[in-house]
Write a structure and sequence with these properties.
The structure is a single chain. By secondary structure, the protein is of the alpha/beta class. The chain has a single domain, classed as Rossmann fold, CATH 3.40.50. Helices cover 30% and strands 14% of the residues. It has a six-stranded parallel β-sheet, sandwiched between helices. Strands 1-6 form a two-stranded antiparallel ribbon. Strands 2-3 form a two-stranded antiparallel ribbon. The longest helix has 18 residues. The protein is globular and about 60 Å long.
């Protein structure tokens, strides 16, 4: 069992979008097209802002709504303010943090500690050792986690003061030795806010450094919102683009949910995204989908219907790590497409 997860990289958003981490690339800005400009004007009361394309596929430029900060939003937990539609979180402390996290849970192999113990203490040690031996474990020793604002809270000391609850520690607890975590508010796979690297380019640049391991992709909330307002890159095409970077390596994709009933981030658009992910499983035998939408509780959401409370982020981190272990277990065979 590894002692720590190393090389954890975050990209927190403070005020204007800024990315700090292993990879960096300048996004190219562009003025919105007429259709999207009209959409943006209609949504300004909700605090939405338009972002230009991050890159182009052929001659088709990619433009989409980049969510901004809803006016009047205040801090959700101690040390965190301004978590709005894109999770442009203002977290007390540094914008970019690199460090290690400790491994949660007890180490040991099945049966260890039974010998030499007597009475209740010996029985307790034996029970703890047995529990450790039967803990969910993954075959993924290295993991790249790429996410949007719904991942920022899982690595934030403001939301999760206890490091054992954070995502890196949860990955370590299922056997991951090295985790690269890159989370940026408002991120999609295609579009990018000024100064931001989109999901595709983040993955591509990491692969270019020689990364070999499993991928966890927690993107889609902003992508399906962008498609709903007129992006010419469809849902399945976005998934295919990012899957091309994995080159057949194991991929766990976290599906999406909101409580919104109207607008680009409406739950109906999230369901369309989730259907596209399930469809993609037929094309990619290396893809598993963690069905977060089926297990996320409504009381884990804050008032914007998109982001989470501290309890929600703690549960999300724990469940994603365990889903990775069920999708790509250390022994035996993983489950089918949907992981719960």
């Amino acid at each position: 069992m590894p002692g720590a997860v190393t090389a954890v990289v975050l990209a927190l958003v403070i005020g204007a979008i800024g990315v700090a981490g292993m990879v960096s690339a300048a996004s190219t800005g562009a003025q919105p097209g007429p259709r999207l400009a009209q959409q943006a004007a209609g949504e300004r009361a909700a605090g939405l802002r338009l972002a230009g394309p991050a890159h182009q596929a052929g001659a088709a430029s990619r433009r989409a709504v980049g969510p901004g900060t809803r006016a009047g939003q205040s801090g959700r937990t101690s040390g965190v303010t301004g978590t709005g539609r894109s999770g442009r979180a203002a977290v007390s402390g540094q914008a970019g943090t690199t460090g290690t996290s400790h491994q949660a849970g007890a180490a040991g192999s099945s049966g260890a500690g039974a010998a030499g113990g007597s009475g209740r203490a010996g029985a307790r040690r034996a029970a703890n050792a047995a529990a450790a031996g039967h803990r969910l474990r993954t075959s993924c020793r290295a993991v790249a986690h790429i996410g949007d604002s719904t991942s920022v809270g899982m690595v934030s000391a403001g939301y999760l003061p206890n490091p054992a609850q954070r995502l890196a520690a949860q990955y370590a607890d299922v056997g991951v030795r090295h985790a690269w975590i890159n989370a940026s508010g408002g991120r999609s796979m295609v579009e990018a806010l000024p100064g931001q690297v989109n999901g595709y380019d983040t993955a591509r640049q990491l692969a270019g450094t020689g990364f070999h391991g499993c991928w966890v992709i927690a993107l889609g909330t902003n992508d399906t919102a962008n498609v709903s307002v007129g992006s010419n890159v469809g849902r399945l095409a976005r998934i295919q683009e990012l899957m091309s970077v994995a080159h057949g390596a194991p991929v766990l994709w976290v599906n999406v949910k909101t409580l919104d009933q109207t607008g680009p981030w409406a739950e109906a658009n999230m369901q369309r995204w989730n259907a596209a992910l399930t469809q993609a499983c037929q094309q990619y035998p290396n893809l598993r989908v963690f069905d977060w939408a089926a297990v996320a509780r409504d009381n884990w959401f804050i008032s914007d219907g998109i982001h989470y409370t501290s309890a929600g982020y703690a549960a999300r981190a724990r469940m994603i790590a365990r889903a990775l272990a069920r999708a790509f277990p250390g022994t035996g065979h993983g489950a089918g497409c949907l992981i719960r």
